[in-house]
Amino acid sequence: KTDPNPPTNLANKPLVEAWFELRWGLEAQAGQVVDPHHQILVGQLYSLLKEKYPFSERLPTADIPEGFAPYLPRHRFRVASERWPLVQISPGILTVNDTENYTWEDFSSYCTVAIDALFSIHPNANNLRITEVALHYVDADILQDGSALELLQELKVSVKLPEALFAGQRISPVNSGVNLSLTYPAKQPKGTFQVSFRQGRKNEDDALIWETQVLSRGADAPHLSEEIKTWLQDAHDTTHDWFFRQ
Asked: Helix or strand or coil: residue 25?
């Protein structure tokens, strides 16, 4: 991770999943919040994307009344069954997800196509009230002989409690798990940067899982399609810089 200009598709990269998320405001109707264009968007978005994503899934959450479960994934378009990348469309939300075969060049093009498609078909595209955009990366590194805290130290993250806390011998000083989340203001793009670490599983092995997220919401969120694509590049550059400084 010390190379200042590393390749974007690493041979031993720890990536589990990357996803881009775009949310827009819903409308109040009869005491609930709904997306009045959702059903139209599902069909039209699939028509535009089916050459790349021919496998369409209607998720079980699609049976829940929209007003009771806004922003939950309902429809998913995949390149093939159980394969990535994929696009999800739900009331008020669009996501693009990829996994092990991720490269930034491909992923950014998937996002660009999905963003352009949404704005081309949305009946209110010129006044679409974007409320939140986010770029997430989830990575995992298998724990060998050491603990999650030791792996954190290799990532230059130091977590150490005073030895006096364990002096009473009621609690063992041997760490058996990690759950740590840190948030910082982001300047480019404007918003927040969050990094979190937890101990979990990767396949059948114990692993340290860490997630980085760049998030802009409200007044910080971009609103036009070209602004969103610029935001996406900035968010990637910020995350990329952080990752390779570890």
From this structure: coil
- Rounded CA separation 235/87 (Å): 19
Q: Is 22 exposed, middle or buried (0-12, 13-18, 19+ CB in 10 A)?
A: buried
pLDDT (average), residues 20-30: 89
Cβ-contact 93, 83 below 8 angstroms:
no
Give the single-character DSSP code of 173: S
The per-residue pLDDT for range 167-205, each reduced to its tens digit, is: 888 899 888 888 899 999 999 999 999 999 998 888 878
151-161: average pLDDT? 81
| Whole-angstrom Cα Rg for the chain | 20
| Spatial CB neighbours of 166, under 8 Å, sequence gap ≥ 6 | 172, 173
What pLDDT, on a 0 to 100 scale, did the predictor assign at position 13? 59
Question: What's the pLDDT band for 105 if we cut at 50, 70, 90?
Answer: very high
Model confidence, pTM: 0.88
CA 43, 233, 103, 72 dihedral sign is negative
CA distance 57 to 73: 11
Mean pLDDT confidence for 66-89 = 91
Helix (H) or strand (E) holding 45: helix 38-49
Say which residues have a Cβ less than 8 Å from residue 121's Cβ, sequence separation at least 6: 40, 41, 44, 45, 48
Separation between Cα atoms, residue 94 and residue 121, nearest integer Å: 13
Looking at per-residue confidence, does 216 or 168 come out higher? 216
Tokens of 160: 């150490």
Please state, in angstroms and as integers, the Cα–Cα distance from residue 122 to each residue in 22, 117, 127, 157, 191, following that order. 14, 9, 10, 44, 26
